[in-house]
């Protein structure tokens, strides 16, 4: 089954957009299989502003985890700012399931730069800048599985059959 990892970033949570964002995937007809609010521990968030902390501690584990999540981006000049942004407040972590969900979710989210995103998309309707683009979505089915594995523990995901299933697909 195809799965994608969707995350409401700290700006989306602070701006009260969580319900709207969840609602768009729900109404589309995808199946929610995981949902939690996650707050990066405060000392880790502060430590994220530092270039290097060599100790084997929780911070390093968390940073490695974020580097793994953003493994294609960790050499980019904006990477430290991205880590600071993502750890700046609570995020809402979600796993969504359904045939074609990865590409469809990317369409619902819209272009990385909210000013280029089409009206009707999440970023097109709700954001103005790449560095504050309110939501993350996996870019391939492989990354969907990989990211769900990074952000959720076993037992946090829920397998269920929505009552509307027979009305969504013939
Ligand atoms: P995600 O769904 O969040 O992965 O966005 P994306 O797939 O549309 O973009 P990409 O994976 O290339 O970049 C990940 C995130 O890094 C973006 O969503 C932005 O939050 C951030 N980012 C990307 N490019 C820039 C940039 O040039 N400047 C800043 N400040 N942030 C960037
Ligand atoms: Mg991406």
From TrEMBL:
<dbReference type="GO" id="GO:0005759">
    <property type="term" value="C:mitochondrial matrix"/>
</dbReference>
<keyword id="KW-0808">Transferase</keyword>
<keyword id="KW-0067">ATP-binding</keyword>
<keyword id="KW-0479">Metal-binding</keyword>
<feature type="binding site">
    <location>
        <position position="78"/>
    </location>
    <ligand>
        <name>ATP</name>
    </ligand>
</feature>
<dbReference type="GO" id="GO:0046872">
    <property type="term" value="F:metal ion binding"/>
</dbReference>
<feature type="binding site">
    <location>
        <position position="106"/>
    </location>
    <ligand>
        <name>ATP</name>
    </ligand>
</feature>
<feature type="binding site">
    <location>
        <position position="112"/>
    </location>
    <ligand>
        <name>ATP</name>
    </ligand>
</feature>
<feature type="binding site">
    <location>
        <position position="9"/>
    </location>
    <ligand>
        <name>ATP</name>
    </ligand>
</feature>
<dbReference type="GO" id="GO:0004550">
    <property type="term" value="F:nucleoside diphosphate kinase activity"/>
</dbReference>
<feature type="domain" description="Nucleoside diphosphate kinase-like">
    <location>
        <begin position="1"/>
        <end position="159"/>
    </location>
</feature>
<keyword id="KW-0418">Kinase</keyword>
<dbReference type="GO" id="GO:0006228">
    <property type="term" value="P:UTP biosynthetic process"/>
</dbReference>
<dbReference type="GO" id="GO:0006241">
    <property type="term" value="P:CTP biosynthetic process"/>
</dbReference>
<keyword id="KW-0547">Nucleotide-binding</keyword>
<keyword id="KW-0546">Nucleotide metabolism</keyword>
<dbReference type="GO" id="GO:0005758">
    <property type="term" value="C:mitochondrial intermembrane space"/>
</dbReference>
<keyword id="KW-0460">Magnesium</keyword>
<comment type="similarity">
    <text>Belongs to the NDK family.</text>
</comment>
<feature type="binding site">
    <location>
        <position position="123"/>
    </location>
    <ligand>
        <name>ATP</name>
    </ligand>
</feature>
<dbReference type="GO" id="GO:0006183">
    <property type="term" value="P:GTP biosynthetic process"/>
</dbReference>
<feature type="binding site">
    <location>
        <position position="133"/>
    </location>
    <ligand>
        <name>ATP</name>
    </ligand>
</feature>
<dbReference type="GO" id="GO:0005524">
    <property type="term" value="F:ATP binding"/>
</dbReference>
<feature type="active site" description="Pros-phosphohistidine intermediate">
    <location>
        <position position="136"/>
    </location>
</feature>
<protein>
    <recommendedName>
        <fullName>Nucleoside diphosphate kinase</fullName>
        <ecNumber>2.7.4.6</ecNumber>
    </recommendedName>
</protein>
């Amino acid at each position: 089954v195809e799965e994608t990892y969707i995350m409401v970033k700290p700006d989306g949570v602070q701006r009260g957009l969580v319900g709207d964002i969840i609602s768009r995937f729900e109404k589309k007809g995808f199946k929610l299989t995981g949902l939690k609010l996650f707050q990066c521990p405060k000392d880790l968030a502060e430590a994220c502003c530092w270039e290097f902390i060599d100790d084997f501690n929780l911070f390093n584990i968390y940073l490695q985890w974020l580097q793994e999540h953003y493994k294609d981006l960790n050499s980019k000049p904006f990477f430290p700012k991205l880590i600071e942004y993502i750890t700046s407040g609570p995020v809402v972590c979600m796993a969504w399931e359904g045939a074609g969900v990865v590409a469809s979710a990317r369409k619902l989210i819209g272009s990385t730069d909210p000013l280029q995103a089409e009206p009707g998309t999440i970023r097109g309707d709700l954001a103005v800048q790449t560095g504050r683009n309110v939501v993350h979505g996996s870019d391939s089915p492989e990354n969907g599985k990989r990211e769900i594995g990074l952000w959720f523990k076993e037992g946090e995901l829920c397998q269920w059959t929505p009552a509307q299933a027979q009305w969504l697909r013939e």
